[in-house]
Design goal:
Elements lengths: L2 E19 L5 E21 L3 E4 L11 H13 L4 E7 L10 H16 L6 H9 L5 H6 L2 E5 L4 E4 L7 E6 L6 H6 L12 H8 L3 H7 L5 H7 L1 H12 L4 E4 L6 E5 L4 H10 L5 E5 L1
Parallel strand pairs: 3-4
Antiparallel strand pairs: 1-2, 2-4, 2-5, 5-6, 7-9, 7-10, 8-9
Helix pairs in contact: 1-2, 2-3, 8-9
Length: 280
């Protein structure tokens, strides 16, 4: 096989707690990642050099490009002296807190594993992913998972999310490092783990609203009130639970029912500069 096409999904964070700043500059966090059916597409083929193309103006082509980082890490790890051509069809918004860049990295690692017949297992690919970014290991397996450390320690969760999900993106790119740099830490000592809370209460939205928070909302809402406004409006149009995803700026809402009338109402509320994604 010398050509492959892989789907690269987005994620939302069902809660995010920041525990402490680490000596390496990162933060210890606690979160529940949930993969959603909003996909970028990545086409890859073996080539005589490393090439990258995309339909998005928001993706850098230099060293900071996470797809190319994945190629370098993979080739160096397995001693591959070849090339690959990557074409990224971008649908997940950039700077939204939906993990698009990390997901793209994971998809490239998985694609290279198949293209070059290396046979690396998920554990090894996750180790390589952690060299690229904190969220990358989650996307190797996907699904729903409890994440700790800087987000790279992944524990899969058997939990069904029984909602229609709507994601609203205001067209605002937010830097994760900027958010963490402006964060005031909260004290979470004595609280039940997010894993336990989500497993026991995923079908009880009133409990979720009382127990599940995203610590990064305070910073983003203060500097970008449009994000707070999205959350408020999602509740007004019938969401039973809503939260900013990751470091923003996208906000998701859980809906118990979704029909055409509700979709039209949501699109009407968020017309003009907003992107709405309806996840079945």
């Amino acid at each position: 096989m010398d050509r492959i096409r892989v789907l690269s999904p987005a994620k939302i964070n069902i809660g995010l707690r920041v525990w402490r700043k680490r000596e390496d500059g990162y933060h210890d966090i606690e979160t529940v990642f949930h993969e959603v059916k909003l996909f970028d597409e990545i086409e890859m083929e073996i080539s005589d050099k490393i090439e990258f193309e995309t339909d998005s103006d928001d993706i850098p082509h230099g060293f900071e490009n996470l797809c190319l980082k994945a190629v370098r890490v993979f080739f160096e790890s397995f001693g591959i002296h070849s090339g690959v051509r990557i074409y990224l069809k971008k649908r997940i918004p950039v700077g939204a807190g939906l993990g698009g860049g990390s997901s793209n990295s994971a998809a490239v690692l998985k694609g290279l594993n198949i293209l070059f017949g290396v046979g690396a297992d998920d554990e090894l690919l996750s180790e390589l992913g952690s060299l690229i970014g904190s969220d990358v290991p989650f996307f190797i397996k996907g699904g729903t998972a409890y994440a700790t450390g800087r987000g790279e320690i992944i524990e899969p969760m058997e939990v069904e999310v029984p909602y229609k999900i709507v994601i609203v993106y205001p067209g605002l790119k937010i830097s994760t490092s900027w958010v963490y740099g402006n964060l005031s830490l909260k004290n979470h000592l004595g609280e039940e783990s997010l894993k336990k809370i989500v497993i026991e209460n995923i079908d009880k939205p009133d409990k979720l609203r009382g127990l599940v928070r995203n610590d990064l909302e305070d910073v983003v809402f203060r500097y970008h009130p449009v994000v707070a406004d999205i959350k408020e409006k999602l509740y007004k149009v019938g969401a039973v639970f809503s939260l900013m995803s990751g470091s923003g700026s996208a906000v998701f809402g859980f809906f118990e029912k979704m029909d055409e009338m509700k979709r039209e109402k949501i699109l009407d509320v968020f017309s003009g500069g907003f992107s709405c994604y309806f996840i079945e």
